[in-house]
Amino acid sequence: MSARRIIGLCLVLTAALFAAGFLVEPLPARAAEAQAATEIAPPEAADILFERHQLAGTKPGDTLSYAYTRKVTDAELGPSFDDRIRLMIEQGPGGDARDVRVDFFSPERHHAAGPFEGVTTNPVLMLFLENHLVDLSGRLKGNPRYLKNAIRSALRDRARVEAADITVDGRTLKGWRITVKPFEGDANAARMRGLETLTYTFDVAPDLPGEIARIEIAAEAPGGRLWEETIAYDPKGS
What we know:
- The protein has about 240 residues and is of the alpha+beta class.
- About 30% of the residues lie in helices and about 35% in strands.
- It has helices spanning about 5-20, 30-40, 45-50, 125-140, 145-155; strands at about 65-70, 80-95, 95-105, 115-120, 160-170, 170-180, 200-205, 210-220, 225-235.
- Strand 1 (about 65-70) and strand 2 (about 80-95) form a beta hairpin.
């Protein structure tokens, strides 16, 4: 399709939306792409989380900062605390690829992580999930590979993907919400001390640097939340 035809089509669509009262200002290009996709069919969860070039909207010198929170109501499941994960974006080999240095938690809880060279996906996703799996398997005295495979299988076969308005620092962005319960109906659920109810929610906004807006892992219990673990993108990096 020619550039002139594309521009003409965009103008027609914009005018129609404005006339219908649905548009105040044009959507950013990548958000418009995400919204348009929802009119056909949502993409696969694995594609959104692991295949997209999530670092394409970053540049060397950027820092992606994520607020981390861990809250538990059972002391045997470990402490509750807040911390931070920072990714320092550096020049990569070319294109959308970046080199990334990682500052994982403050000095008293610091984890060795990275650096990552020539990556296009946001490392914070795997860093967060791997840290969660080590923590979870340690608390449950379980096999981390078993838990990891359950999460991977659920994301592939049972994840719910829906278009969502993602709010970040007062801004509302078009994106995707992915929800999955990996251990629902698991044969070993009785050994998970209530954590078989864990629900994993991923908020992804294509127009956000790094695309990962928020990840929440939560388990409900009769007296309230048994486990809540989140990271949330913080554009101010405070």
